[in-house]
Amino acid sequence: MRSDIYIHHYELVSRFGLNSRSDRTRHKGVLIKIGDGVGCIHPWRELGDPSLEELIEDLRKGRFFRPLVRSAIKCAMVDGRARSQGVSVFDKVEVPRSHATIVGGSERIEEAVAAGFEVVKMKAGRRVAEEVELLNAMHERYPNLRWRLDFNNVLDGGGIRSFIKSLSDGLRAKIDFLEDPCEANDRDWAGIRSLYGIPLAVDRKVEEARGQFTYAIAKPALDDITPLCARAMIEGWELVFTSYMDHPIGQCYAAWCSGKVEKRFYGLEDPVAGLMTHGLFEPDAFIERMGDPSPQWQSPGGTGFGFDDLLEDVKWEKLK
Amino acid sequence: MRSDIYIHHYELVSRFGLNSRSDRTRHKGVLIKIGDGVGCIHPWRELGDPSLEELIEDLRKGRFFRPLVRSAIKCAMVDGRARSQGVSVFDKVEVPRSHATIVGGSERIEEAVAAGFEVVKMKAGRRVAEEVELLNAMHERYPNLRWRLDFNNVLDGGGIRSFIKSLSDGLRAKIDFLEDPCEANDRDWAGIRSLYGIPLAVDRKVEEARGQFTYAIAKPALDDITPLCARAMIEGWELVFTSYMDHPIGQCYAAWCSGKVEKRFYGLEDPVAGLMTHGLFEPDAFIERMGDPSPQWQSPGGTGFGFDDLLEDVKWEKLK
Fold it and tell me: Where are the domains of chain A?
């Protein structure tokens, strides 16, 4: 009994560029389907991922070991198993609260506050003067709002220091962490761990970062979760689970992984996560099903990772 | 809160060489411990694994992605979690029956039959005349006993054909499969899939084998199990779960993995497994705790993967 692999090309359209390295607003990926199980592959070339074509070729050849393919396969297996049992994967899974992932200006932040978010994550470092002005102004308006600033390594050590210095003391006290503030080979990196008392977070380059951080970003779209949690347990990292700004199926997989991890066993503190990213994109049927972005995860319902009826209408292409 | 990694060097002593590529009888590995969770790393250099020293260095540096290290970490996390809950990992897990793994002659086979084994796995190909004689004689004595012959690629295409031809028809009908009968780049390999009606199995080189086999050997000590099961589902392989001829802790981990896999979901037939290998080694306290080898898996009891009292007496060395 053999199962075929099917794929479906999709495109997500964002209102703005979604990281500090690119202004791209069209984001291509594929849904994959094996049996009844669905996953997604959504590479970010500007962040070092292989091309979508290479990953599809891996899939075709049964090479399931590159991170994005491996995770899509694992997602599809979890999904298919739950669908075959007629249950939602989210039954009895407690997904942590999320920060708001913001691209754009004050309006988006106002929306986030109105939606109940207590923490906002913003890309930063590309238009420093504007960003500093916005942050200071928003902190005056919402003094309890907490911040996470993701620089994607675009500044150097001096740049990041002058960025932080230009923030008010009160605002600095409300920053959860600075993510990828500068390249770890920067001469300012050694011994940094926190910058003016603000903890650091590292996304992709945990090896190069040589332990100079408090938070590691855990991405179920890429990471082998159990070894990563073991590493966190050994190194004393805290893990911030985040989605990959990918298809809602991938977003659901990330949320499910973050809820399944037994944080108490690993000694993890379970900080606010970053699982709420579908609001970055123009609505489509899948995105609308996720509801309005809010700090508390909402299951899309249905079986497996949900979207049962929408998946019936997807046009699948047999891979081999 | 940081956890340290501890290791403990062990040596298993076998009565004979344990694969067709070596006569080595002393086999070194390490137990690892993180928190209360235990795993083992047991490389087989003659089968292409990295050295124990390299793997320990990976462990020290937090590089948990090479297969033997990754699996030891996963084992330790499963084990630690169950120990922290005071439960055995084997509660409600149904481990499949196993073949007897035999090295040596008729006496071992007699023992296996007496212990209730219905299937015997033997290394073959190094002393062809002796092996053929033994097999034909044993088949006459035990006509219902089934066989699995593992050649570790030591013969060429011609050699394996002449081996099979020298077996009686009745015996051939009792062979479950021929494992790694010859190198996949042998000119006799293409289109082979079965040899005189006997299915083939492939252990390490599933890529090179280009689908010319019915059974793939699944080794939880090396394999990322979910992607492997997905691959089997897609390619129509059957999986034979086997231990790694490693420490009883690793043997238990393999047994647990094989019992946890939802074979029905993956469309797997759940053939007799190869999880009973501790009998190949001179007894020590851990091996004795596993009981006499028998086709039906016996949990060693205790919490996690068991051996609670024995692990208390292990001398652990802090890794960093």
Answer: 5-87+308-318, 100-289
Contact state of B35 with A65 under an 8 Å Cβ cutoff: no
Cβ–Cβ < 8 Å for B69, B58? yes
- Residues of chain B in contact with residue A5, where contact means CB-CB under 8 angstroms, are 234
HEC readout, chain A: CCCCEEEEEEEEEECCCCECCECCCEEEEEEEEECCEEEEECCCHHHCCCCHHHHHHHHHCCCCCCHHHHHHHHHHHHHHHHHHHCCECCCCCCCCCECEEECCCHHHHHHHHHCCCCEEEEECCCCHHHHHHHHHHHHHHCCCCEEEEECCCCECHHHHHHHHHCCCHHHHCCEEEEECCECCCCCCCCCCCEECCEEEEECCCCCCCCCCCCEEEECCCCCCHHHHHHHHHHHCCEEEEECCCCCHHHHHHHHHHHHHCCHHHHCCCCCCEECCCHHHECCCHHHHHCCCCCCCCCCCCCCECCCHHHHHCCCCEECC
Residues of chain B neighbouring A74 (CB-CB closer than 8 A): 226-227
**B153-169 pLDDT tens trace:** 889 889 999 999 999 99
Which residues of chain A lie closer than 8 angstroms to B80, CB-CB? Answer: 265
Nearest by CB: A231 against B62, B84, B233: B62
Interface A-B: count of C-beta contacts within 8 A: 81
What fold, for B5-89+308-318? Enolase-like; domain 1 (3.30.390)
Q: Is the pLDDT reported for residue A20 higher than 80?
A: no
- The CATH number of the structural domain formed by A5-87+308-318 is 3.30.390.10
Measured between beta carbons, the chain B residues lying within 8 angstroms of A214 are none
Position A18 confidence tier, pLDDT thresholds 50, 70, 90: confident
Nearest CA to A257 out of A289, A234, A229 is that of A229
Best residue of A79, A225, A226 to probe chain B, by most B CBs closer than 10 Å: A226
Nearest CB neighbour to A227, from listed B35, B73, B84? B73
**When comparing pLDDT for A157 and A113, which is higher?**
A113
Residue A28 contacts residue A56 (beta carbons within 8 Å) = no
Decide yes or no: CATH 2.60.370.10 for domain B100-289.
no
Q: Measure B92 CA to nearest chain A CA, in Å.
A: 19
Domain B5-89+308-318 matches domain B100-289 at the CATH topology level: no
Residues of chain B with pLDDT under 50: none
Residue with tokens 């070729």: A57
Pairing of strands B317-318, B5-13: antiparallel
pLDDT at B203: 92
Which residues are CB-neighbours of A284 under 8 A, at least 6 positions away?
A: A12
| ipTM score above 0.85 | yes
Residue A65 to residue B4, Cβ atoms within 8 A: no
Question: Under an 8 A CB cutoff, do A2 and B230 touch?
Answer: no
Q: For B73, name the nearest residue in chain A, comparing CA atoms only.
A: A227
Q: B42-73, pLDDT tens digit by residue?
A: 999 988 999 999 999 999 999 999 999 999 99
